[in-house]
Write a structure and sequence with these properties.
- By secondary structure, the chain is an alpha/beta fold.
- It has a single domain, classed as Nucleotidyltransferase, domain 5 (2-Layer Sandwich), CATH 3.30.420.
- It is 39% helix and 17% strand.
- A five-stranded mixed beta sheet has the order 4-3-2-1-5.
- A hairpin with a 2-residue loop joins strand 2 and strand 3.
- Helix 3 packs across helix 7.
- It is globular and about 40 Å long.
Protein backbone atom coordinates (compact mmCIF):
# COMPACT_ATOMS: atom_id res chain seq x y z
CA UNK A 1 0.00 0.00 0.00
CA UNK A 2 1.23 3.47 -0.82
CA UNK A 3 0.07 7.06 -0.99
CA UNK A 4 0.49 8.57 -4.43
CA UNK A 5 1.44 12.25 -4.52
CA UNK A 6 1.48 14.06 -7.85
CA UNK A 7 4.00 16.88 -7.71
CA UNK A 8 4.61 19.96 -9.79
CA UNK A 9 7.87 20.05 -11.72
CA UNK A 10 9.18 22.66 -9.28
CA UNK A 11 8.76 20.33 -6.29
CA UNK A 12 9.67 17.17 -8.18
CA UNK A 13 13.11 18.57 -9.03
CA UNK A 14 13.86 19.11 -5.30
CA UNK A 15 12.99 15.58 -4.18
CA UNK A 16 15.77 12.97 -3.86
CA UNK A 17 13.81 10.12 -5.46
CA UNK A 18 14.98 6.65 -6.32
CA UNK A 19 14.14 5.08 -9.68
CA UNK A 20 10.80 3.80 -8.29
CA UNK A 21 9.56 7.24 -7.21
CA UNK A 22 10.17 6.84 -3.47
CA UNK A 23 12.28 9.18 -1.36
CA UNK A 24 15.81 8.28 -0.38
CA UNK A 25 15.50 9.20 3.32
CA UNK A 26 18.23 11.10 5.12
CA UNK A 27 17.77 8.94 8.22
CA UNK A 28 16.62 5.31 8.61
CA UNK A 29 12.83 5.02 8.37
CA UNK A 30 10.52 3.45 10.82
CA UNK A 31 8.72 0.68 9.03
CA UNK A 32 5.01 1.37 8.75
CA UNK A 33 2.61 -1.38 9.73
CA UNK A 34 1.04 -2.87 6.59
CA UNK A 35 -2.64 -2.05 6.40
CA UNK A 36 -5.44 -4.48 5.66
CA UNK A 37 -6.87 -1.87 3.29
CA UNK A 38 -6.03 -2.71 -0.34
CA UNK A 39 -7.30 0.46 -2.02
CA UNK A 40 -5.98 3.34 0.03
CA UNK A 41 -8.61 6.10 0.16
CA UNK A 42 -5.88 8.51 1.29
CA UNK A 43 -3.94 8.01 -1.92
CA UNK A 44 -4.14 10.71 -4.54
CA UNK A 45 -2.68 14.07 -3.53
CA UNK A 46 -1.20 16.98 -5.45
CA UNK A 47 1.73 18.94 -4.05
CA UNK A 48 3.46 22.16 -4.96
CA UNK A 49 6.51 23.98 -3.65
CA UNK A 50 5.72 27.58 -2.81
CA UNK A 51 7.95 30.30 -1.43
CA UNK A 52 6.47 32.46 1.30
CA UNK A 53 8.57 35.16 2.94
CA UNK A 54 11.71 33.51 1.52
CA UNK A 55 10.87 30.12 3.06
CA UNK A 56 10.20 26.87 1.21
CA UNK A 57 6.72 25.57 1.94
CA UNK A 58 4.73 22.70 0.48
CA UNK A 59 0.99 22.82 -0.14
CA UNK A 60 -0.66 19.42 -0.57
CA UNK A 61 -4.28 18.89 -1.58
CA UNK A 62 -6.17 15.60 -1.53
CA UNK A 63 -7.73 14.99 -4.95
CA UNK A 64 -11.23 13.87 -3.98
CA UNK A 65 -11.83 15.83 -0.75
CA UNK A 66 -9.72 18.93 -1.52
CA UNK A 67 -8.35 18.65 2.05
CA UNK A 68 -5.14 20.66 2.39
CA UNK A 69 -1.94 19.96 4.29
CA UNK A 70 0.51 22.83 4.67
CA UNK A 71 4.17 22.25 5.54
CA UNK A 72 6.33 25.29 6.20
CA UNK A 73 10.01 26.16 6.54
CA UNK A 74 11.52 23.22 4.69
CA UNK A 75 15.28 23.17 4.28
CA UNK A 76 17.07 21.22 1.56
CA UNK A 77 17.74 18.31 3.91
CA UNK A 78 14.01 18.10 4.85
CA UNK A 79 12.94 17.11 1.34
CA UNK A 80 14.35 13.61 1.85
CA UNK A 81 11.84 13.12 4.67
CA UNK A 82 8.86 14.79 3.00
CA UNK A 83 6.68 11.73 3.53
CA UNK A 84 7.27 11.97 7.30
CA UNK A 85 6.52 15.71 7.24
CA UNK A 86 3.32 14.98 5.29
CA UNK A 87 2.16 12.31 7.74
CA UNK A 88 2.92 14.53 10.73
CA UNK A 89 1.13 17.55 9.26
CA UNK A 90 -1.85 15.46 8.11
CA UNK A 91 -2.44 13.83 11.51
CA UNK A 92 -1.93 17.08 13.44
CA UNK A 93 -4.28 18.96 11.10
CA UNK A 94 -6.93 16.28 11.62
CA UNK A 95 -6.45 16.56 15.38
CA UNK A 96 -6.76 20.36 15.29
CA UNK A 97 -9.85 19.96 13.11
CA UNK A 98 -11.60 17.95 15.83
CA UNK A 99 -11.51 14.49 14.27
CA UNK A 100 -12.78 11.73 16.54
CA UNK A 101 -10.40 9.14 17.97
CA UNK A 102 -11.89 6.55 15.59
CA UNK A 103 -11.20 8.81 12.59
CA UNK A 104 -7.64 9.45 13.79
CA UNK A 105 -7.04 5.75 14.32
CA UNK A 106 -8.34 4.89 10.87
CA UNK A 107 -6.24 7.64 9.30
CA UNK A 108 -3.17 6.24 11.06
CA UNK A 109 -3.83 2.79 9.58
CA UNK A 110 -3.97 4.32 6.09
CA UNK A 111 -0.62 6.10 6.31
CA UNK A 112 1.95 4.55 4.04
CA UNK A 113 5.16 5.50 2.27
CA UNK A 114 4.62 8.17 -0.32
CA UNK A 115 5.20 7.55 -4.01
CA UNK A 116 5.92 10.73 -5.98
CA UNK A 117 5.33 11.33 -9.66
CA UNK A 118 4.95 14.35 -11.92
CA UNK A 119 1.44 13.58 -13.29
CA UNK A 120 -0.89 16.44 -12.46
CA UNK A 121 -4.57 17.26 -12.80
CA UNK A 122 -5.27 20.84 -13.80
CA UNK A 123 -8.43 20.87 -11.66
CA UNK A 124 -6.63 19.95 -8.44
CA UNK A 125 -3.73 22.24 -9.35
CA UNK A 126 -6.22 25.10 -9.69
CA UNK A 127 -7.58 24.43 -6.19
CA UNK A 128 -4.04 24.17 -4.82
CA UNK A 129 -2.99 27.45 -6.47
CA UNK A 130 -6.06 29.22 -5.10
CA UNK A 131 -5.31 27.92 -1.59
CA UNK A 132 -1.67 29.00 -1.89
CA UNK A 133 -2.85 32.46 -2.94
CA UNK A 134 -5.25 32.56 0.02
CA UNK A 135 -2.40 31.77 2.42
CA UNK A 136 -0.20 34.43 0.85
CA UNK A 137 -3.05 36.95 1.06
CA UNK A 138 -3.72 36.05 4.72
CA UNK A 139 -0.06 36.62 5.63
CA UNK A 140 0.01 39.92 3.76
CA UNK A 141 -3.32 41.27 5.09
CA UNK A 142 -2.58 40.33 8.71
CA UNK A 143 1.03 41.50 8.36
CA UNK A 144 1.95 38.12 9.88
CA UNK A 145 5.29 36.38 9.91
CA UNK A 146 5.29 32.84 8.59
CA UNK A 147 7.21 31.52 11.61
CA UNK A 148 4.40 32.80 13.88
CA UNK A 149 1.70 30.93 11.96
CA UNK A 150 0.69 27.44 13.11
CA UNK A 151 0.69 25.35 9.92
CA UNK A 152 -1.84 22.87 11.32
CA UNK A 153 -4.31 25.65 12.15
CA UNK A 154 -3.72 27.03 8.67
CA UNK A 155 -4.72 23.62 7.28
CA UNK A 156 -7.89 23.77 9.39
CA UNK A 157 -8.64 27.26 8.06
CA UNK A 158 -8.30 25.97 4.50
CA UNK A 159 -10.45 22.90 5.28
CA UNK A 160 -13.33 25.04 6.48
CA UNK A 161 -13.66 26.88 3.16
CA UNK A 162 -15.71 25.61 0.21
CA UNK A 163 -14.04 24.51 -3.02
CA UNK A 164 -15.64 24.48 -6.42
CA UNK A 165 -14.66 21.72 -8.78
CA UNK A 166 -15.29 21.65 -12.50
CA UNK A 167 -18.06 19.18 -13.31
CA UNK A 168 -19.33 19.02 -9.72
CA UNK A 169 -22.61 20.83 -9.08
CA UNK A 170 -22.19 21.60 -5.38
CA UNK A 171 -19.20 22.92 -3.50
CA UNK A 172 -16.89 20.50 -1.73
CA UNK A 173 -16.28 21.30 1.92
CA UNK A 174 -12.85 19.73 2.59
CA UNK A 175 -13.39 19.26 6.35
CA UNK A 176 -16.70 17.48 5.87
CA UNK A 177 -15.42 15.41 2.94
CA UNK A 178 -12.24 14.21 4.71
CA UNK A 179 -14.01 13.38 7.98
CA UNK A 180 -16.67 11.52 6.00
CA UNK A 181 -13.95 9.60 4.15
CA UNK A 182 -12.43 8.61 7.51
CA UNK A 183 -15.86 7.57 8.84
CA UNK A 184 -16.76 5.06 6.14
CA UNK A 185 -18.40 1.84 7.41
CA UNK A 186 -15.42 -0.13 6.06
CA UNK A 187 -13.14 1.82 8.42
CA UNK A 188 -14.98 0.51 11.47
CA UNK A 189 -14.57 -3.12 10.46
CA UNK A 190 -10.85 -2.59 9.73
CA UNK A 191 -10.21 -1.27 13.24
CA UNK A 192 -11.88 -4.13 15.07
Amino acid sequence: MKIIIHTTKKLHSKLPLDESGYLKPSTPRISLVPSAVEDNPLSGWHANLITLQRHNCVMMVHDSTRFAVFIKNLLKRNFADLDWHFQNAFMNTLFQLGATQQQLDYAATLLAHCHFDADCSRSVQGTMNRMSGDVEHLLWCDNAKLEDVNSYRLGVWLAERPCTVKGVKDCIWPKKAMLQLLSQPTSRSTLQ
